[in-house]
Amino acid sequence: MNQPVNSADIHKAIVEEQAAQDRKKMMLNGVLLLILLAAPFMIYPVFLMKILCFALFAVAFNLLFGFTGLLSFGHAAFLATGGYTTGYLLSNYSGLTTEMGIIAGTLAATLLGTGFALLSIRRQGIYFAMVTLALAQLVFFFFVQSEFTGGEDGMHGIPRGELLGFINLEDNLNMYYFVLVVFIACYLLVQRIVNSPYGQVLKAIKQNEPRAVSLGYNVDRYKVLAFVISAALAGLAGSMKSVVFQLASLNDAHWHMSGEVILMTLVGGMGTLLGPVVGATFVVNIEYQLSQGALRDWVDPILGGIFVLTVLAFRSGIVGEIQKFVKKNLG
Amino acid sequence: MTMMKKLLTSAVASAMMASGAQAAISNDTVKIGYLADMSGTYRDLAGPNGLKALEMAIADFGGQVNGAKIEVVSADDRNSPDTSSSTVRRWVENEDVDLVAGMVASSVSIAVSKILEENDRLGIISGSAASSITNEHCTPNHIHYVYDTYPLANGTASAVVKEGGKTWYMLTADYAFGHALEGDVTRVVEANGGEIVGTVRHPFPTQDFSSFILQAQASGADVIGLANAGADTTNAITTASEFGVTQSGQTLAALLLFLTDVHALGAQTAQGIQLTTGWYWDMNDETREWSDRFMEETGVRPTMVHAGIYSSTMQYLNAVDATGSDDAQTVRKQMMDTPINDMFAKNGKIRVDGRMVHDMYLAEVKTPAESKNEWDLYKILRTIPAEESYRPLSESKCKLVNN
Amino acid sequence: MSMIFGVPLAVLSGQLLIGIINGAFYALLSLGLAVIFGLLKIINFAHGAMYMLGAMTTVLMFDYLGVNYWVALLLAPLLVGAFGVAIEYFLLRRIAGQDHIYSLLLTFGIALIISGVLVNWFGVSGLRYAMPDMFKGGVNLGFMFMPYYRAWVIVAALVVCFGTWFVIEKTKLGAYLRAGTEDSQLMQGFGINVPLLISLTYGFGVALAAFAGVLAAPIYSVTPVMGSATLITVFAVVVIGGMGSIGGAIITGILMGVIEGLTKTFYPPASSAVIFLVMVLVLMFRPSGLFGKEA
């Protein structure tokens, strides 16, 4: 580096390295896609769909937390709003096709997200987290009180129906590929957002908000938009989940769910694209496997232990730690 | 591998059907899945000890049925309908589980029963209180065994009104379960010439009941009815005792109390409370004998849910034995045709809606002077006959009942 | 009888008094949180678990060692406080200087472990703890029956609250504490063992929670999960008061007790949600809470 070099050479080297990295990424993504396509033949599809729904939920949350630096402690509200709205519409209006129900659920969550964002966006740090928590608690109260949610009995027997009116979603494979397509589309969307100029501004806000303000950005508008997109995607995850499981319940609205999505994001690696996906897969799996095995009475303390361990030793999460390792040893 | 197995099984099954053979026990194994809250709020009334009760039943039955071996799998339901759905779907679709037992939270029970109906397997729900499970949510694939809100309200409320508790003030947990109990109590109280003079709906969960107890005291009602469960009920009772509710001449009527709750309160605090229970460990030699064995295994006395899990598992295995089949409908029909006579119930009957109806008992918590040890807690005041207890089929909204 | 909004005045006075008692209780719990956040910038999500540990320790010490209520009142906070010191020393210290959020997640994990393990040992039905003899009964105030124990709760809670406030805000020790946590290098230079000071402060904060737990043991069902619902409410109190404001936590605690009490009278179903409504409203107009300093 202390050799004087021609700037054109540097430029060329950067471009080449970029291209090499892109090729590696493409290959990795290709492999992942193949795995996802083949997965339902090896693993139980409903379980895979559960993972995909939670992965989407975590990706949505991470857009806000990992890339914008806003910790929402109320994301359960959007998951539940999406789920209940879709469930209610599909159960009561048989003329609706499934995707219409899902779109309506997503819209409801988007609307709610806009409200949350407008009320909370001026608050900083822990106050932001607490306002979103408080708002989510009010939403929880509304769902407990409402007749249509079935209270703690939950909403059951939501019909999966037909996609676009002709693809039968009662079939688990059809349902799986539908969820997969939606998930990949959302993932690509978030990737696009993060790498766009808009995403750069979000990262700038995360790193140093006053500087972003002094550069002339209307920071609040950027943050509101990020919040609304995040809420919409979380709602979409909830809508799909209610169709997959054919039920919606208060568990989705409880503040523990808001805590769980933080855990997923953190374990996977916040601020990375793939992190929340890996984290959701890990957490859903571990909770599920533990609840079946010899340790089934000890799920909570083990989850607690994972929290503690992650915070103390793997703060960058699974994906973050791997990236660090790769950079250090191979890069 | 599993796909192959599935294909094979279905090929064998269809071959047998084609040859006109009686349905047999699939895979030569009867597999029972125990699903319950193992770590949350409902842990103590079923939970890990419920699994012990189930295993006791299998051991007492001899470990195998009609030449087939009996296997048990178990899982924590996390009180979450989606975790439970994933578990039960895998159980029935990939692991050939024949019977799902346990189940407490109503959201879990309802979700599981839908999956069982879809896959035509059997479920026996022992822990849930919601009477909707065999009413609007009934399926031909599940049985609701131990109790529900209907007889709880019926038993306690009618007894208390008949003893002169004419005016009632209700403390109701503000969710579907509480509302259902409150509705049932109101109906029974009014039918017996009593009156509900006030109701307060408290959030679930609530720790401090002093404010509500104060309102109940100010109402001057004869009876304070507690339409809640678990920690809410024990907190309400503790506070009532602290604020001198009974000294001022008001009676407490708890609509759902488990033995574990009363044990936690102790006779000193809980004395004199009337409640309805489906079973009590110290009723006769049969119940005592079984409870002693249970206590050896677990260190505690069984709740009615534990006893119900034992009894229903026995009934199930008997039916499998008698029919030589683990087909859900064959076994359920056999279970419906066989009256239940064991340490849990006398002349219990499983109705077409899946409700197991049996005698219930009106109990009163003993005073510290009467209570000889920490588990000696109830006096049985009266047996409430099965037909008076449960919701009559004529009022049923169940799709299996022709109304 | 005179009525206010359809509620007899006598009932209303009773509810106000009950509200103040519960408020004193909230004040005690939120005070510990405020001390920990105000001085150490740790968001202690294990506070509910520490409150539970205080109550559990009281019951277990009585059952196994025959330790009476008064001794427990001193011993349980000491034991739990020592446990807190250990947690600070072995775990929290490692993330000092990191974003607040990590302390929240770490303590949340610790709380899950503690309550999860105790559930397996003691179940969830609750442990029995008898009211100490001298507090049995109560006095009729005309508008309500006042159990002696509740009167004691309000006295004990308020004395401890104001004692703590006085020590931290008005004494030399408090000045060291505030200075030590704000500029540790300077204080280290003065020969003060700052790391020890930090451990002790955390221990003291959780000891306050444990003290509230001892007060709760005779009147609430003592279970390993009793802290989790309380935690969120108490957090709301601290946020409304302004995170880290010690006086704010005390005053807001009492205020919220009263507001909750009135809600329990006029619209009971909303009594658990009302605090969050207040929180949203307050933060809209005062972004750092009622008594917080602007960030």
UniProtKB/TrEMBL annotation, chain A:
Database matches in Pfam families: BPD_transp_2
What does the entry list under GO cellular component?
plasma membrane
The keyword Cytoplasm is annotated on this UniProt entry: no
Looking up InterPro entries in the UniProt record yields:
ABC_transp_permease, LivM-like
Show the stretches that span the lipid bilayer.
Answer: 26-47, 54-80, 100-119, 126-144, 173-190, 224-249, 261-286, 298-318
Q: Does the keyword RNA-binding apply?
A: no
| Bilayer topology | Multi-pass membrane protein
Q: Cite the entry's keywords alphabetically.
A: Cell membrane, Membrane, Transmembrane, Transmembrane helix
Question: In which compartments does the protein localize?
Answer: Cell inner membrane
Q: Name one GO molecular function term.
A: branched-chain amino acid transmembrane transporter activity
Q: Which domain of life is it from?
A: Bacteria
Put simply, this protein is called Branched-chain amino acid ABC transporter permease
Provide the species name: Marinobacter maroccanus
UniProtKB/TrEMBL annotation, chain B:
Q: Which UniProt keywords apply?
A: Signal
- The answer to whether UniProt assigns keyword tRNA processing to this entry is no
Domain annotation Leucine-binding protein: ranges: 29-366
**UniProt cross-references to InterPro entries, sorted A to Z:** BCAA_transport, Leu-bd, Peripla_BP_I
First and last residue of the signal peptide: 1-23
- Xref: CDD domains: PBP1_SBP-like (cd06327)
Q: Which family does it belong to?
A: Belongs to the leucine-binding protein family.
Please report the name of this protein according to its UniProt entry.
ABC transporter permease
From TrEMBL, chain C:
Q: Does the keyword Signal apply?
A: no
Q: Which GO terms describe its biological process?
A: amino acid transport
* Superkingdom of the source species: Bacteria
Q: Where do transmembrane segments lie in this chain?
A: 12-37, 73-92, 104-129, 149-168, 196-220, 232-259, 266-285
Q: Where in the cell is it found?
A: Cell inner membrane
Return the similarity comment.
Answer: Belongs to the binding-protein-dependent transport system permease family. LivHM subfamily.
The topology of this chain with respect to the membrane is: Multi-pass membrane protein
GO molecular function: any one? transmembrane transporter activity
- Cellular component terms per the entry's GO annotation: plasma membrane
Q: Which PANTHER family match?
A: ABC TRANSPORTER ATP-BINDING PROTEIN (PTHR11795:SF442), BRANCHED-CHAIN AMINO ACID TRANSPORT SYSTEM PERMEASE PROTEIN LIVH (PTHR11795)
Q: Reply yes or no: does the keyword tRNA-binding apply.
A: no
Keyword vocabulary terms for this entry: Amino-acid transport, Cell membrane, Membrane, Transmembrane, Transmembrane helix, Transport
UniProt-recorded name of the protein:
Branched-chain amino acid ABC transporter permease
